[in-house]
Amino acid sequence: MKKLALSLSVATAMMASAGAFAEYPEQNIDMIVPFSAGGGNDTFVRALQPLLEEKLDTNLVIRNISGGGGAVGLTRAQASDADGYTLAAASNALLTLEALGNVDFTYEDFDFVAKILEEPYVIAVGEDSEYADLDAMVEAAKEGTSVQVGVSGVGSSAHIAAVAFADTAEVDFNFIPYPGGSETISAAMGGHVDAVVLGGAELRSALESGRLKALGMSYAERSESLPDVPTFQEEGYNLSLTVWRGIAGPDGLPEEAKEAWVNAIKEIVEEGSFEETASNLGLDIVPLYGDELEAFIAESAEVMKESAGDLAAK
């Protein structure tokens, strides 16, 4: 009888524990955005916020913790309890920071829940630029012209992407870093730099207004959000990169929490409720989960490490 009572007690405890996890989430969830308000990661999360709150039946508390190119916020997220109640907006920045050796964590210190969006890196020039296409800009650099290319921040993913293109084209550009995307775009529109490399979503407004002209972008195939912009590969440059955005938490997230998030995101994607918003932001919905996501992150980390090494050598 004692053994039976003990067995029943253990079974009851296990059922209670399972029931508690099944009720996830039982409280508000903190979402750390490792950049200031208004940037690409912040816009992405805030656009998803009401849809996620409805699916998860809780409040998503967005906390902008900027600094160090995303290092401060991501370090805070990685050091948080792995209970599913502190997550972070993840992007290329996480892998870039690791590749450059600017943080103590690696991508393996995170549990990646989902990749949701992608956008291409775009090379654009001012509306009055003398460069009609990528070949013209590359040829000028090869002939000794100092082609100035604006990027947002030293060692940012956009900076690394710009270096990767220069390596592919076998030229040296004069990279000019600016504090953020808006300053970089202003510099290009004002003729202070010859070109700019940024994510397509950040450039969308300037491209639509005609103040900037896109010469090429980094997808393997043309983007639905930028159908008139040729890929680097179309122009003869064998380079393919993407800016991706998703959700991650500290390593060791409960499976119940990950499952709840994945199910919520899958439902949002399948219902199409986020499609118009993503399109208006110039972003492409390209979701990945589970093993496919892990393979994507590992491959992306290797690409970033290689490109970061090229950057450090310059």
From TrEMBL:
SUPFAM superfamilies: Periplasmic binding protein-like II. It holds the Pfam family TctC. The keyword Signal applies. CDD domains: PBP2_Bug_TTT. Keywords: Signal. The keyword Signal applies. Residues 1-22 form the signal peptide. Belongs to the UPF0065 (bug) family. This is Tripartite tricarboxylate transporter substrate binding protein. It comes from Vreelandella neptunia.
